[in-house]
Amino acid sequence: MGTVPSALKHCLSYQHLLKEQLWIAEPPAAAHPAQEPQALGLPEYVKIVEVGPRDGLQNEKVIVPTDIKIELINQLSKTGLPAIEVTSFVSSKWVPQMADHKEVMRGIERHPGVQYPVLTPNLQGFHSAIAAGATEVSVFGAASESFSKMNINCSIEESIEKFEEVTKSARNMNIPVRGYVSCALGCPYEGNVLPDKVAEVSKRLYSMGCYEISLGDTIGVGTPGSMKKMLEAVMKEIPLSALAVHCHDTYGQALANILTAIQMGVAVVDSSVAGLGGCPYAKGATGNVATEDVIYMLNGLGINTGVNLCAVMEAGNFICTALNKKTNSKVAQASFSTGTIN
Amino acid sequence: ATGGYPKRVKVVEVGPRDGLQNEKNVVPTPVKINLINMLSETGLQVIEATSFVSPKWIPQMADHTEVMQGINKFPGISYPVLTPNLKGFQAAVAAGAKEVSIFGAASELFTKKNINCSIEESLERFDEVMKAAREASIPVRGYVSCVLGCPYEGKISAAKVAEVSKKMYSMGCYEISLGDTIGVGTPGSMKEMLAVVMKEVPVGALAVHCHDTYGQALANILVALQMGVSVVDASVAGLGGCPYAQGASGNVATEDLVYMLNGLGIHTGVDLQKLMDTGTFICNALNRKTNSKVSQASCRL
After folding, report:
1. A217 chain-B contacts, CB cut-off 8 A
2. Active-site residue (options: A210, A279, A310, A320)
3. What percent of chain B has pLDDT over 90?
4. What is the pTM for the complete model shown?
5. Do strands A268-271 and B50-51 pair parallel, antiparallel, or not at all (unpaired)?
6. What is the pLDDT of residues B171-197, one digit of tens each?
7. ipTM for the whole complex
8. Are the C-beta atoms of B3 and B227 separated by less than 8 Å?
9. Full set of structural domains in chain A with CATH
10. For residues B50-61, average pLDDT
11. Which residue ranges does the record assign to the Pyruvate carboxyltransferase domain (chain A) (predicted)?
């Protein structure tokens, strides 16, 4: 479309436009009544659950030193994120990246108003997590028998029994438990996953006491079409306010899927700073959706998240430098290119 | 609220023009011709072939006549070309073009920086093209750039977008493609802009041309579809970076768009596998990685 000077990054108007979108200072007041989220049928507030330090790093090849993990989490704690998944109390044999779970849990700053959940696959992990100071835990179910078998070497039913032990202990100690359902929109082994199966597993986790169910498109194959069908089935069994979506961007569908979920009233979204975490089922492909890109979209919709996008980009820049990799966040890529962020 | 979706969507493939134009490496003519021929086999109905603009400005498009004359023209497929002025239009028709496109903008500063005149002056230039096109029975597609933000002016008012779109539609453009040139738009601004434009131009004559520079393209396209838009521009392999943000991406990838539309049960007529193969071909020729996530992912359902 014609030649353009490359000195555009000094263009004040462009930077100004981006600053409005990036919400550096305050969220821009909705210029138009039509821009109010409620007028669009959307939630006013969306809770972002940051899974970078756990789900993200777990799927990164390079083992990250403990002090870097702690620094990442401390930086994320200052961004306004309400929940940051810290680590996983799983055997280091299975997930070497998470071998330093105790040190990380004990080493991080705990900011008031921020939750720091950890994964606990079984009772042993749960006790270990509590001993290390955890005040919230997560359990991971799946909507696919094959995935359950391949991932944790037991059937869905057997895994539910293990989780019941965890939720029982957790209840006794007033520890909230979040439940995840993997393969909600497709399984690397079984292919199609029935929405009713997702609803069934979700209901089991919710009934045993999980306060929130995060529905995971584990291999990112979902589209707005399958997201809608799945949510319709699950919403028959679980109240909307207890639902979250955990979308992977492996096929570039994450933001469209998240938008669909939000349009249906879901108000909790999982994401990973800098889009950390590839896909273990598709070599070289991406995994988690980038927190920066989600926040950019929510800001543009006038939806409050409480999160400072620039601070998240800085944390993303920190961890990408430490991992010696490029960010998976398009917002971060574009912002650093235009000199809006230095 | 989730609206209904159109049953069919027309995908307008802009890779060979908008895509290649924004790629650093100049692509040899035979490669361009092969790209377009491969795209012609995928089921795409519209493939923007080239631009009849001065090679001084756009070296990548210097071979426009050879490309236009060299490609296989399949019946039922349209091969529009860009024509910035009457001279370009005449060269295009002489080279065999049967459809042309003209480019307006919703930003005065962008128009000034891009083609060194005001919006009003640019529309006067296009008037000449429209007149000649009408006489030759050549359909004209109109593009409006910067509909959701401008690299120079910043925010762009939806009313301005509607005004320019209406003018181009009244001049005789059969379709107006609304371009988020720097990819800053979000579903919020897309919805607001379309609501205003749709008061002036019938939705059946509207298309969206979203850039994925901030990762928002598919979400923006989704909202446009919910509002009744049923024509979407995209670029195979997401060819074409952003001239305003070095290293950042530009056009949305056709593969990723088709994947989403397939998942919504919307008919496009496009064979995704053939499209991916075409993307692989051009990326190899350009010695670059694809920008399409669907292409990158290797697991299949």
Report:
1. none
2. A279
3. 89
4. 0.93
5. unpaired
6. 999 999 999 999 999 999 999 999 999
7. 0.94
8. yes
9. 47-336 (3.20.20.70)
10. 92
11. 46-313
Q: What is the pLDDT of residues A117-158, one digit of tens each?
A: 999 999 999 999 999 999 999 999 999 999 999 988 899 999
- Going B292 to B293 to B294 to B299, the CA torsion angle's sign is positive
Q: How many CB pairs under 8 A join A and B?
A: 190
With an 8 Å Cβ cutoff, is B198 touching chain A?
no
CATH class belonging to B10-298: alpha beta
Residue B298 near chain A (CB below 8 Å): yes
Task: Please answer whether residues A276 and A328 qualify as being in contact, where contact means their C-beta atoms are separated by less than 8 angstroms.
Answer: yes
- The letter for the amino acid at B52 is F
- Nearest in space to B165 (alpha carbons), one of B156, B176, B155, B174: B176
Mind telling me how many Å the CA of B63 is from chain A's nearest CA? Answer: 16
Determine which of B147, B189, B233, B244 to mutate to test the interface with A (most A C-beta atoms within 10 Å).
B244
Domain ranges of chain B: 10-298
> E-assigned strands of chain A?
47-50, 83-84, 118-119, 137-142, 177-182, 212-217, 243-247, 268-271
pLDDT at A13: 55
How confident is the model at residue A7, as a pLDDT?
38
Determine the distance in angstroms separating the CA of B282 from the nearest CA of chain A, rounded to an integer. Answer: 20
A-chain CB neighbours of B248 within 8 Å are 330, 333-334, 337-338
The H or E element spanning position A230 is helix A224-234
